[in-house]
Design brief:
The chain is of the alpha/beta class and 323 residues long. The chain has two domains: 149 residues, Rossmann fold, CATH 3.40.50.2300; 103 residues, Winged helix-like DNA-binding domain superfamily/Winged helix DNA-binding domain (Arc Repressor Mutant, subunit A). It contains eleven helices and ten strands. It comes from Qipengyuania vulgaris.
Length: 323
């Protein structure tokens, strides 16, 4: 049975039907996006290629912008950056489909709008992305679906739900009984100088050498030879380990590389990265040589937390790692 994803028409607070702009160079994908957008209750404001939109034939931007970008040359990157700026100012939401080869260039374009970026998505994943947008519109009702369609939607949304659940409530810095970081209070020693006392704290731990962290990563990956890899899927920790090793090696990490290190599908890895940036665990760093690109790194507080973790398990900058 063909799934019916149709919603009732969606309206804003003023009673106007929400509009959508669809930009796609691949005709089959553009056709699917149009069908799904209409089924979701949006009014099609524009449906054209990226080049046509960039030519200025239409200056309007919908409440939702769906973009299919398989290749990101200089002209496309410039257009995406403008869309990000316009959406960031207007409040429009953006969903971008791209390929693994173009991920770094596309990711670097979106810093203001909070765009959903999908990597080599299937049609169902695009529908789910539209559904996440509709989730913020009140009083919507999804038509009844067959049981197998319900199960399909449940599986597709499960990963997003897990990310939100595991990272819910995380915030930068320290919080009593919660938060992204939990630190023990540093001990203090006192040195007597005549009648005066000076308090000095222990030197904060440093990250171990990158190759030692890499050995931990390799040991984690080795489990997949003997067990189902999904049993040990922990993308957040794999991301932290990879970035810790890169920090120790003074090496920059691209988004594409980090998605691979996460050990999950690229779109899922990208969601984890975005959530961890929002939680203050990671930071987005513009490429100093190419402002259209961005790298991901550990926040300074996260570096300290990772160093304390390695010290707690006996892996320090001074000690050898025993695997």
């Amino acid at each position: 049975m063909q799934a019916d994803f149709s919603y009732e028409l969606v309206f804003d607070s003023a009673g106007f039907q929400l509009a959508i702009t669809i930009l796609a160079d691949r005709e089959p994908v553009g056709g699917q996006l149009r069908e799904d957008a209409e089924a979701a209750g949006f009014r099609i404001l524009e449906c054209c290629s990226l080049d046509e939109f960039a030519s200025g034939a239409s200056g309007a931007l919908g409440d939702l912008v769906l973009v299919d970008c398989a290749e990101a040359d200089a002209a496309v990157v410039a257009l995406l950056s403008r869309l990000d700026m316009r959406a960031g100012k207007s409040g429009a939401q953006i969903v971008v489909s791209t390929t693994m080869a173009s991920l770094d260039a596309v990711f670097g374009c979106f810093a203001m709008s909070g765009a959903q970026i999908l990597v080599d998505p299937c049609r169902a994943e695009r529908v789910i992305a539209i559904g996440r947008v509709l989730a913020h519109v009140p009083n919507l009702r999804l038509r009844e679906l067959a049981e197998e369609d319900r199960l399909m939607l449940l599986r597709l949304t499960e990963q997003v739900g897990k990310i939100a659940e595991r990272l819910e409530g995380l915030s930068p810095g320290q919080r009593e009984g919660g938060g992204a970081f939990r630190f023990e209070s540093p001990t203090q020693t006192f040195a007597q100088q005549g009648e005066e006392y000076s308090a000095s704290r222990e030197k904060p731990p440093q990250l171990p050498a990158g190759d030692r962290i890499r050995r931990m990563i390799q040991a984690r990956q080795l489990r997949a030879r003997f067990f189902d890899a999904e049993l040990f899927a922990d993308p957040a920790w794999d991301i932290l380990l990879d970035l810790a090793a890169a920090k120790s090696e003074r090496r920059r990490v691209s988004v594409t590389s980090l998605c691979i290190a996460a050990g999950v599908p690229a779109t899922t890895g990208l969601r984890w990265i975005s959530q961890m940036v929002d939680a203050g665990l990671l930071v987005r760093i513009p490429d100093p040589h190419d402002r259209r690109r961005a790298h991901i790194a550990l926040d300074d507080t996260t570096v300290d937390a990772m160093a304390r973790y390695f010290e707690a398990i006996g892996v320090t900058a001074e000690e050898l790692l025993a695997v």
